Amino acid sequence: xxxxxxxxxxxxxxxxxxxxxxxxxxxxxxxxxxxxxxxxxxxxxxxxxxxxxxxxxxxxxxxxxxxxxxxxxxxxxxxxxxxxxxxxxxxxxxxxxxxxxxxxxxxxxxxxxxxxxxxxxxxxxxxx
Length: 128
Known about the structure:
The chain has helices at 2-35, 45-59, 108-123; strands at residues 37-41, 65-67, 72-77, 80-89, 93-102, 105-106. The protein is an alpha+beta fold and 128 residues long. It folds into two domains: 1-35; 36-128, Kinase associated domain 1, KA1 (TATA-Binding Protein), CATH 3.30.310. Strand 3 (72-77) and strand 4 form a beta hairpin. Helix 2 crosses helix 3.
C-alpha cells in the first residue's frame, strides 16, 4: 500500500512538472517576443545564423547553447543571459531577435550591441 501511494504521488508530481514546463515555455516565448531587440537583414537565414553564432563566440567565453534546427542560441555575456533567434522573414529577408536579461531586468543596450556586432560581421568583406 505504501508503494502504491508513493507511485501515485510520483505520477501526479511528474504530470504537474510537465504542465509547468509547457506553460513556462509559452511564457518565455511571449516574454521573448515582447522584449527582444529586432533587426531585419536582406541575407540568407543560414548565413545570418552562422554569423550570429560567430558574433556570440566573440563576445563571450561562456558555453553557447544552440538549437541549429530552430536557429536559437543562449549564452551569458557580461553576467546577462543573452538569447538569439534567427528566422526567415518575408521573401529573401531574415529577422534576428536578441534579448538580454540580468537579474530579471532587460538589458536592451546589450541586446543592441549584439545586433550591431552581428550586422557588422555580416557586412564585413574579407580583404584580398
